């Protein structure tokens, strides 16, 4: 069973802050950092219309999640320093060719 909620997939340019959304795109960068309380892995995801950050609090890496991987993700959209972000999204990685 898919891990994302069955919301309609939206272009990243059309998602709205403080609303639950589902997006699809390509991971263009992955970074890991630590806050005072936990590690945070951040994946930057872009589609043809824009970009969003996916933050995984408490994680340094996720198996199969690499630059160039296609991802479908769902969660509440927030704002962090002017960039849209979904924290701890439900997600599904897409294997090329599927």
Briefly summarize what is shown.
With 98 residues, this protein is mainly beta. The chain has no helices and six strands. The protein starts with 19 loop residues before the first strand and ends with a strand.
Task: From the structure above, extract its key features.
single chain; 98 residues; mainly beta; five-stranded mixed barrel; 52% strand
Protein structure class? mainly beta
Helix content: under 10%
- End-to-end separation in angstroms reads 16 Å
Averaged pLDDT, please? Answer: 90
- Sequence stretches where pLDDT stays below 50 over 5 or more residues: none
Strand content: over 45%
How are the strands of the largest sheet arranged? 1-2-3-5-4
How many distinct helices?
Answer: 0
Topology readout:
Layout: E1 20-34, E2 39-46, E3 51-57, E4 70-80, E5 83-87, E6 90-94
Parallel strand pairs: 3-5
Antiparallel strand pairs: 1-2, 1-4, 2-3, 4-5, 4-6
What does this structure look like?
The chain has a five-stranded mixed beta barrel with strand order 1-2-3-5-4. The chain has no helices and six strands. With 98 residues, it is mainly beta. The model has no long low-confidence stretch (mean pLDDT 90). The chain starts with 19 loop residues before the first strand and ends with a strand.
């Amino acid at each position: 069973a898919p891990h994302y909620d069955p919301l309609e997939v939206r272009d990243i340019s059309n998602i709205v802050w403080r609303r639950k959304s589902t997006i699809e795109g390509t991971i263009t960068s992955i970074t890991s950092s630590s806050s005072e309380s936990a590690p945070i892995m951040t994946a930057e995801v872009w589609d043809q219309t824009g970009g969003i950050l996916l933050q995984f609090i408490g994680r340094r890496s996720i198996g199969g999640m690499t630059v160039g991987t296609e991802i479908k993700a769902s969660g509440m959209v927030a704002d962090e320093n002017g960039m849209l972000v979904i924290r701890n999204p439900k997600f599904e990685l897409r294997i090329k060719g599927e």
